[in-house]
């Protein structure tokens, strides 16, 4: 489950930071390979927020444990080898005269420098320090690669926490880090080579994405998919269908909601029901979201944007980077439907959108004449096949995240073999958003658990509501 730093069970110890640059013997070279569409949109959005005075930290992180007795130099060499493995970690961006420029260090050219922060006697104090340090270090325009590695050294166990600006990594990449660092660590201690297959570079991927997207024109099928989706919503991307209590012109602080949706047995039963209906778990989840929107807000066509991975070639599977594209999803719902009816439409809608996956959503929306900045995202990540997953309990692995401000809603559903399905929602920190997001997620849970138990769900017609509790977005 994606959680906040304050909820990670951190123990005290000797805290050491491992920073990438800027004290390095060589300067990065100007790199003509462009940013990906997602990277450029993310960095320009961060710059716009900074210029408006609303910029706030936002990062992804992963925490896990290594064997105790690990030394500072031992960790420095592990992080250096890992940095050489992934070119994305050796690349940074600058805005120069309005243009986004990339600068990249070669293998071995980026120094990883340890800095002893001090010995802490409180785990809470460690967490508070790291949260503030990550806020500073993950600024995508700060002049150095926007990430920071840290470790809390103890005799019995060492806790490692790495944090990144989203321009460097996606959620799946961060989940692979514990396995890779453990492999580098074990290899260093035994004198063997790490048992990791070679990986491609996200920097190369970004350049290839831009080159292919440049050949796309307004008549491309992917542009048609997005144009029809946008037309159905009056020319704009969808927002959460219930009121978030956000005042125009204000950027509220963000709140994080963490919940369990299905236990392990329930997740298995729900997946079996989806497979019996000739579909996948993801289709069933989206159907449950559509039903929840119908029953809480009266929405007869559920509209959202869904992240999908783009790791289509073997070289990208274990590569660290932001390998994601956004797909538009529309699912019609009516009061006489069963879950099977909505499931069928959800599966059909998601399959129909697949042709759009090969064209970056930013490029498709650009050609369709609309902004590509999503405001309502529903993400599903199947974590059961992530390398090293069987050791996560032993390694105390926890995905962490921070989003300080925002008026959008992002919902992440995580599927783990040992913990079932959980959800993390980041939404505006307003009383109304808390109530309405809670009502929506509660209904998603009810639908999925009913399907897990009975194999189906009969929709309820939207009935009278207390307007103080659930207010349709207007």
Description:
By secondary structure, the chain is of the alpha+beta class. The longest helix is centred in the C-terminal third of the chain and has 24 residues, at 431-454. The strands form four sheets. Strands 6-1-7-8-3-13 form a six-stranded antiparallel β-sheet, with helices on both faces. The chain has a four-stranded mixed β-sheet with strand order 9-15-14-12. It is 37% helix and 24% strand. It is built from 13 helices and 15 strands. The model is unreliable at 464-474 (pLDDT under 50). A hairpin with a 3-residue loop joins strand 7 (147-153) and strand 8. Helix 2 (72-85) crosses helix 4 (171-190), helix 7 packs across helix 13 and helix 8 packs across helix 13. The chain is globular and about 65 Å long. It folds into two domains: 5-205, Chloramphenicol Acetyltransferase, CATH 3.30.559.10; 216-454, 2-Layer Sandwich (Chloramphenicol Acetyltransferase).
